[in-house]
Write a structure and sequence with these properties.
344 residues, mainly beta, four-stranded mixed beta sheet, three-stranded antiparallel beta sheet, 20 strands
Length: 344
């Protein structure tokens, strides 16, 4: 009996849908107050029931189209219940259901704590920023009870700060420490400019950034940077250069010392006296020479006694034979680069 009643009801409904009429239609009542007024105290109206996937597959849905989602596995339809098409997207129907809003397609309000399982993936906020706001302006990382704007329970690494260095206070708070004073010079195994440090390679000052040029001028550096290639640092007059890597020893650099020597052997040998313009003849005894001045008759004689042949030595001076060649005074070393801090 109920089946027949249902068939009659549907037949009447279909008939009314095809009748071109402006009159109001009532079902279950004789005084309709709308284009279609259905009244019942025992039954409701059933609208199409689709899975979420089927509903999202509807081609060209129209504004106001209504359906009931029986599953929650759609990319948009993620709850079971009534959904309607607002002309652009499917939305849940009913005050007790939240709108389909997430961080990927709109703003929303968290109704409770949420936990995200990253499953090995990364979460990024672009472009180039991550902003966290709270009523008390306290954010905790590894700490669910932060006491500071950023409270980190763990190690923190900070690099490439142009305004100064990060220092840790006694309570673990990080703060900006004093920046490196302009004009500070350091040695490094790096070979190029970095973070406001400029290589002392003799380049023109006007090739540096404006801030570096101004700071160089305040230090009295003009024209070119000092070229520190192959130079050692020495304290003294600022910006002065000098010295050499080689040196020549002069006579004044040597100790006052006479080099003497002795012949290597002492043997019997004789000496021969040779006159230079004088007539020298041996004496009759053979132990002296007679010296005659001029030629002809001797005007006078003098006896020259020579030592007898025997063992004796000779002493003398020897030249060094040097040619004053300079020698390198730089010891063994490791090469590195000098930089000056002028800011950036």
């Amino acid at each position: 009996m109920q089946t027949r009643t249902t068939i009659k009801f549907l037949s009447l409904l279909y008939l009314l849908l095809f009748i071109n009429t402006k009159a109001q239609v009532g079902i279950g009542n004789s005084n309709p107050r709308a284009a279609l007024d259905v009244t019942s105290t025992t039954q409701g109206i059933l609208i199409p029931r689709l899975t979420a996937v089927q509903a999202e597959a509807i081609s060209n849905p129209v504004l106001g189209e209504l359906l009931y989602a029986t599953t929650n596995d759609g990319s948009i339809i993620n709850n079971t219940g009534f959904w309607y098409y607002d002309g652009a997207i499917w939305k849940p129907f009913g005050a007790t259901l939240q709108l389909n809003v997430d961080i990927y397609n709109g703003d929303g309000t968290l109704a409770a704590d949420r936990t995200m399982n990253m499953s090995g993936h990364n979460l990024s906020f672009d472009p180039d920023k991550l902003t966290l706001l709270a009523v008390d302006q306290k954010t905790g990382i590894g700490d669910d009870s932060p006491e500071h704007t950023l409270d980190v329970n763990g190690n923190v690494r900070v690099r490439n700060l142009s305004g100064g260095n990060v220092v840790a206070l006694t309570d673990g708070t990080l703060a900006i420490g004093p920046k490196v004073p302009y004009g500070t010079v350091k040695e490094s195994l790096r070979s190029t400019d970095h973070n406001g440090w400029y290589k002392l390679d003799g380049r023109a000052i006007n090739t540096l950034p404006a801030i570096a040029q101004a700071n160089a001028a305040s230090l009295g550096i003009s024209g070119n940077l000092i070229n520190a290639n192959n130079l050692l640092m020495k304290q003294g007059a600022t910006l002065a250069t000098g010295g050499t890597s080689n040196i020549n020893l002069l006579r004044a650099n040597l100790p006052n010392y006479n080099m003497t020597g002795t012949t290597s052997a002492s043997v019997n040998h004789a000496h021969t006296a040779i006159s230079g313009g004088w007539n020298v003849t041996p004496s009759a005894t053979g132990t002296a020479f007679i010296v005659r001045a001029g030629r002809g008759t001797a005007s006078g004689t003098a006896a020259i006694t020579l030592p007898t042949s025997g063992v004796h030595t000779h002493t003398g001076f020897a030249a060094s034979g040097g040619n004053n060649t300079s020698f390198n005074i730089i010891p063994e070393s490791i090469m590195y680069t000098y930089f000056i801090y002028l800011g950036q």
